[in-house]
Design brief:
- The protein is built from eleven helices and five strands; from the N terminus they run βαβααβαβααβααααα.
- It starts with a strand and ends with a helix.
- It is an alpha/beta fold.
- The protein has a five-stranded parallel sheet with strand order 2-3-1-4-5, sandwiched between helices.
- The chain folds into two domains: about 5-180, 3-Layer(aba) Sandwich (Rossmann fold); about 185-250.
- It is globular.
Length: about 250
């Protein structure tokens, strides 16, 4: 049977990991290997939460996902995956390893997620949930490959029915398209990817700026300029590096 890469997306504390565990239990015939970004987060991580650490967490999760796909396993990828570009990275992996690909949108309301987060032993800063919610690219809003095979609100008591419907959807999943993997990512999404990498590298080398909002905002300012002026990727990267260097020089 052709292998599957199943991708969860949704804001923090929306019930993604709970759903992932339910899928693993109730759809045991697929024998999904769960890749959860929480594997690289501990209590200290949340207690000293810094957004720039997320790049390394995601990098580790992608690496593990690829290793499992290479080994011929079905994979369930549990992360926020809030940008289209993040989901596209996973589509590319599915295409590379010739497996079927599907997205599940965990669409629990923001207010519910905030309540559930507050009940956690190690809650995220509420501002983090708010920021991700504001930046969340609804799956399927731009591309057909990004259309979710299922949208689930974990605050509703319909999970059993949803899992039954999901099993039917999984049986109809198609292979990731080579053409979609190559062509559907937009220039703005490429700029998003490259600026996230530049910012992560900068903060790794300049630890004193971690968590400083004025520094994090520079990336968003650059993205706005780059998208409005249609800058090339090289121009976008250079602009961000120049502004970050100016920030250091002015400090």
């Amino acid at each position: 049977m052709t292998k599957i890469l199943l991708v969860l997306c949704g804001i923090p504390a929306s019930g993604k990991t709970t759903l992932a565990n339910l899928i693993s239990k109730h759809l045991a015939l697929y024998n999904f290997e769960l890749v959860s970004t929480d594997e690289w987060r501990d209590e200290k991580y949340y207690a000293e939460f810094m957004p720039e650490k997320e790049h390394e967490v995601r990098k580790n999760a992608l690496k593990k996902t690829e290793e499992l796909l290479r080994a011929g396993r079905n994979v369930l990828h549990d992360d926020t995956n809030y940008y289209t570009s993040m989901r596209h990275e996973l589509l590319e992996l599915a295409n590379q390893y010739q497996c079927r690909f599907g997205i599940i949108h965990v669409a629990t309301p923001f207010e519910t997620a905030v309540t559930w987060n507050a009940q956690r032993q190690s809650p995220l800063p509420e501002l983090v949930i708010e920021r991700i919610a504001k930046r969340f690219d609804n799956p399927g809003s731009k591309y057909s490959w990004d259309e979710p095979i299922k949208t689930i609100d974990m605050s509703r008591n319909e999970v059993t029915r949803e899992l039954e419907e999901l099993q039917e959807e999984l049986s109809k999943l198609s292979h990731a398209s080579k053409e979609e993997a190559k062509t559907t990512i937009s220039e703005s999404e490429k700029r998003d990817q490259i600026t996230r990498k530049v910012m992560a590298d900068f903060l790794r080398e300049n630890k004193e700026y971690r968590g400083m909002q004025s520094v994090l905002d520079i990336r968003h300012q650059v993205l706005e300029i780059a998208n409005n002026q249609n800058l090339t990727l090289i121009e976008t990267e250079q602009l961000l590096r120049d502004l970050l260097e100016d920030k250091v020089a002015a400090s």
